[in-house]
Amino acid sequence: MSATTASANASTSAKSVLNESRQIERAAMLIEMGARMQVLESETSLSYERLIRLYKEIAGKSPSKGQLPFSTDWFLTWQENIHSSLFLNIYEYLSKGVDADAIEVLTKAYRLYNEQVQALDLEPLLSFTRAWRLVKFVDAQMLTRTQCSKCTGMFVSEMYENAKHYECGLCNPPARAGKSKAAGSLALH
Ligand SMILES: [Zn+2]
């Protein structure tokens, strides 16, 4: 092996060590945010076995099994929709002009969503994994935001919602909405 090849190899392996430590850092951050395996597998290049070990080490337990249902319905349910919209508005706002990668924007937006919700004395209904899934649905054009014709707020909706007649869950809540006595749920006055 020549000296140049040896040093090229050294720099390649240094790079891969660096990349690997970045991947671990990223996975650790996601685990701390409460991300499920699905998110970790999709957002890092680490092997499944590696991720399981990391998960156990950081979360102190095995990751929960089972996939999230692949459905947009959850985000369109009344109370869930209001939480999803709050998060997505923060996410869209942060995505503009910020030159950070998508997962960083997602994490930042999720932290801000949590702060907002706690300031309102609500339970954060939207988990980090759900938030991640929501952004994927929006990217895949399976969900979008539509402006409410009454309050002009932007809300998570199906594609091609008729914006002229669209009313959000706060302006036009379902009959049973806001009746829940559960702590941290949304109450209408
Ligand atoms: Zn409205």
Automatic annotation (TrEMBL):
<keyword id="KW-0238">DNA-binding</keyword>
<keyword id="KW-0282">Flagellum</keyword>
<comment type="similarity">
    <text>Belongs to the FlhC family.</text>
</comment>
<feature type="binding site">
    <location>
        <position position="171"/>
    </location>
    <ligand>
        <name>Zn(2+)</name>
    </ligand>
</feature>
<feature type="binding site">
    <location>
        <position position="151"/>
    </location>
    <ligand>
        <name>Zn(2+)</name>
    </ligand>
</feature>
<feature type="binding site">
    <location>
        <position position="148"/>
    </location>
    <ligand>
        <name>Zn(2+)</name>
    </ligand>
</feature>
<comment type="function">
    <text>Functions in complex with FlhD as a master transcriptional regulator that regulates transcription of several flagellar and non-flagellar operons by binding to their promoter region. Activates expression of class 2 flagellar genes, including fliA, which is a flagellum-specific sigma factor that turns on the class 3 genes. Also regulates genes whose products function in a variety of physiological pathways.</text>
</comment>
<feature type="binding site">
    <location>
        <position position="168"/>
    </location>
    <ligand>
        <name>Zn(2+)</name>
    </ligand>
</feature>
<keyword id="KW-0963">Cytoplasm</keyword>
<keyword id="KW-0966">Cell projection</keyword>
<keyword id="KW-0479">Metal-binding</keyword>
<dbReference type="GO" id="GO:1902208">
    <property type="term" value="P:regulation of bacterial-type flagellum assembly"/>
</dbReference>
<dbReference type="GO" id="GO:0044781">
    <property type="term" value="P:bacterial-type flagellum organization"/>
</dbReference>
<protein>
    <recommendedName>
        <fullName>Flagellar transcriptional regulator FlhC</fullName>
    </recommendedName>
</protein>
<keyword id="KW-1005">Bacterial flagellum biogenesis</keyword>
<keyword id="KW-0804">Transcription</keyword>
<keyword id="KW-0969">Cilium</keyword>
<dbReference type="GO" id="GO:0008270">
    <property type="term" value="F:zinc ion binding"/>
</dbReference>
<dbReference type="GO" id="GO:0005737">
    <property type="term" value="C:cytoplasm"/>
</dbReference>
<keyword id="KW-0862">Zinc</keyword>
<keyword id="KW-0805">Transcription regulation</keyword>
<dbReference type="InterPro" id="IPR007944">
    <property type="entry name" value="FlhC"/>
</dbReference>
<keyword id="KW-0010">Activator</keyword>
<dbReference type="GO" id="GO:0003677">
    <property type="term" value="F:DNA binding"/>
</dbReference>
<dbReference type="GO" id="GO:0045893">
    <property type="term" value="P:positive regulation of DNA-templated transcription"/>
</dbReference>
<dbReference type="Pfam" id="PF05280">
    <property type="entry name" value="FlhC"/>
</dbReference>
<comment type="subunit">
    <text>Heterohexamer composed of two FlhC and four FlhD subunits. Each FlhC binds a FlhD dimer, forming a heterotrimer, and a hexamer assembles by dimerization of two heterotrimers.</text>
</comment>
